[in-house]
Amino acid sequence: MGLIATTAITTAVTTVLLAGCSGGVDSLNQPASGSASNSGGGAITVGTANYTENVVLGYLYAGVLKAKGVTVTVKPNLGSREVIIPALQHGDIDLLPEYQGSLLAYLKPDAKQSSAADVQQALTAALPAGLKVLPYAAAEDADVYAVTKATADKYNLHSLADLAAHNGQLVFGGPAEDQTRYAGIVGLEQVYGARFKEFKALDADGPLTKGALGKGDIDVANLFSTDVDIQRKGWVVLTDPKHLIAAQHIVPLISSAKPNPAVESALAQLNDKLTTDALSQLDSKVDNDKADPDQVAADWLKQEGIVS
């Protein structure tokens, strides 16, 4: 899921699911879950945003750190960046699974870097004092713009460049911040000349956006590349030939005081194993199979031989 939305995901279904499946919290003042090993490496508290993929990533981080002897607690479902980044800066949490492009856009809204290397370099320069990013994973959860096959056929849509031929005809739906962010409505007009009939503020790759796309209430939806529903429902992802959308590789954002050889080697090992397809399947096990995210993460780490 390419971004941690800059507004919290508030749908009741998502909140209930995550709280029920993960033993999660929705307040920094509530107990954390998942206490770990007592040996070596220093203690680390992992925080996550309040949606499936980020919670799974939090438990993956915890699992690899525990295997290196680091004492770990997990505080899942904390909310949006407006909550989590200050919590990280104030020491309430120490480590957060992040997404390159979305984090850069949060820190520097006018940033236009798009390649993984360029985004990582810009992130390093833009981070507030006391925070750092570690090397990013192979896995990426990027924003994508999708249409139904019927809409693609009707308007001959294959790429974002095709949208301008139908200015004023199509309805766009996605999270509220799409209306003002560069990789959303602003960039689609500036880079591709695309203008929409209407913008509908919905949710971040959630049931509101996907439901509206399926029912035809919107024509173009902002989804995430790891969403298994895209392939399952036969939706068409519009290509991005001008590279509007920034790379969204999974990247650890950590308090500068916390990295040490055990921490860095653990997260690097996860980076090497975690692919976009694997992340998509982990998301599906929670969202569609209703499995607990902590158990899904633990099972995958054992399956990949990362932990014993």
> Hey, roughly how much beta strand do the residues contain?
5-15%
Beta strand count:
10
Question: How does the major sheet shape up?
Answer: 5 strands, mixed
Order of helices and strands: HEHEHEHHEEHEHEHEHEEHHH
GO molecular function, one term: transmembrane transporter activity
Organism: Amycolatopsis balhimycina DSM 5908
Protein name: ABC transporter substrate-binding protein
Pfam families: OpuAC
What does this molecule look like?
The chain is α/β, with parallel strands linked by helices. The chain has two domains: 12-140 and 247-303, Periplasmic binding protein-like II (D-Maltodextrin-Binding Protein, domain 2, 3-Layer(aba) Sandwich); 143-237, D-Maltodextrin-Binding Protein, domain 2. It is 40% helix and 14% strand. The chain contains twelve helices and ten strands. It has helices at residues 12-22, 52-67, 81-89, 100-107, 116-126, 149-155, 182-192, 207-215, 228-232, 261-273, 276-287, 293-303; strands at residues 43-47, 71-75, 95-99, 131-133, 143-147, 171-174, 198-201, 220-224, 236-237, 250-255. Strands 7-6-8-5-9 form a five-stranded mixed sheet. Strand 6 (171-174), helix 7 and strand 7 (198-201) form a beta-alpha-beta unit. Helix 2 crosses helix 12 and helix 4 (100-107) runs parallel beside helix 5. One of its GO terms (cellular component) is ATP-binding cassette (ABC) transporter complex. GO terms for molecular function: transmembrane transporter activity. Residues 43-303 form the ABC-type glycine betaine transport system substrate-binding domain.
